[in-house]
Design a protein that fits this description.
Helix content is about 70%, strand content about 10%. By secondary structure, the protein is mainly α. α2 packs across α4.
């Protein structure tokens, strides 16, 4: 890791560039479904139990609650997500992914696994495994930190 201020040599810059490239490639495949990465992120968070309500998603994604309402509306219209009133707080909706939504997530998961395999092939088994482990650790920490913060 770089310790000087040379931007292109920093891990942050490299992750940003590589992440943008991978995100664009993945979004191109996702575009065929008519959905955006935010749609997919919403479905994945609900499916994995990281978020139960629209407010949870807004906090985790760091977006406005009104954007999440629009995303949920669009996902619900496509039969990928269901909303029902929270009996404990009628102003909130509990979100659940439908069977159709789970099928879409599985399809996108297969595509993501193919991208992962390509990355591992480029890096080799040892470095690919280390990258996967490091990213999992960083992701767990990010979700933990965002889950603790209030909206």
């Amino acid at each position: 890791m770089a310790t000087d201020s040379s931007l292109p040599e920093t891990a942050a810059f490299r992750l940003m560039v590589l992440g943008t490239d991978l995100a664009n490639e993945f979004a191109e495949h996702l575009r065929e479904t008519g959905l955006t990465p935010k749609h997919l992120g919403t479905l994945a968070m609900v499916s994995q139990g990281l978020a139960r309500t629209q407010d949870d998603i807004a906090r985790l994604m760091r977006v406005s609650p009104s954007l999440v309402v629009r995303l949920a509306d669009q996902l619900e219209q496509r039969g990928l997500l269901e909303r029902r009133r929270d009996p404990a707080n009628r102003r909130k909706h509990i979100l659940t992914v439908t069977g159709k939504g789970e099928s879409l997530l599985a399809e996108m998961g297969s595509h993501a696994a193919a991208v992962d395999a390509e990355l591992s092939a480029r890096l080799g088994q040892r470095l690919g495994g280390q990258l996967d482990e490091a990213l999992a650790r960083l992701m767990d920490k990010l979700v933990e930190d965002r889950s603790r913060k209030s909206p």
